């Protein structure tokens, strides 16, 4: 939906770094689900650098460390957290969610403000 609404979508992923095939698995899954993105950054150990370079509005990630680092650098971050994962204190730069519907609604709220 977000892509159809003229939002630029960028993949910034560590996949393919240690195990090259992980990138291919992700690409196959995107194709299978009919997902397309404007840019891809694979093998990224430091997502902060690319996020700053691309001047992203919001990052979606399921890594506590990535979300903490980006939010501490004033990048709005959606923390896709599973119940067993470490909690991050929410603030103006971190929003914790548990499903894609919450992500969509949060981004739509951001667009209104």
Strand order of the largest sheet: 3-4-5
Low-pLDDT regions = none
Q: Strand pairing plus helix content: what structural class?
A: alpha/beta
Report the β-strand fraction as a percent range: 15-25%
Task: Work out the helix count.
Answer: 4
Global outline: globular
Describe the main β-sheet briefly. Answer: 3 strands, parallel
Rg, alpha carbons? 14 Å
Write the layout of secondary structure elements.
Blueprint: E1 10-12, H1 20-33, E2 39-41, H2 47-54, E3 58-61, H3 64-72, E4 76-80, E5 94-97, H4 100-112
Parallel strand pairs: 1-2, 3-4, 4-5
Question: What does it look like?
Answer:
The protein has 113 residues and is an alpha/beta fold. The protein folds into 2 domains: 1-45, no CATH class; 57-113, no CATH class. 39% of the residues lie in helices and 17% in strands. The chain has 4 helices and 5 strands. The strands form 2 sheets. Strands 3-4-5 form a 3-stranded parallel β-sheet, sandwiched between helices. A two-stranded parallel sheet has the order 1-2. Strand 1, helix 1 (20-33) and strand 2 form a beta-alpha-beta unit. The longest helix has 14 residues, at 20-33.
């Amino acid at each position: 939906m977000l892509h159809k609404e003229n939002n630029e979508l960028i993949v910034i992923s560590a996949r393919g770094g240690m195990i090259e095939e992980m990138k291919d698995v992700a690409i196959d899954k995107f194709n299978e689900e009919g997902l397309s993105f404007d840019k891809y950054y694979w093998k990224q150990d430091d997502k902060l650098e690319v996020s700053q370079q691309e001047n992203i509005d919001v990052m979606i990630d399921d890594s506590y460390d990535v979300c903490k680092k980006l939010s501490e650098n004033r990048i709005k971050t959606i923390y896709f957290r599973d119940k067993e994962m470490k909690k991050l204190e929410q603030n103006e730069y971190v929003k914790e969610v548990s499903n894609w519907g919450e992500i969509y609604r949060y981004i739509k709220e951001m667009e209104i403000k």
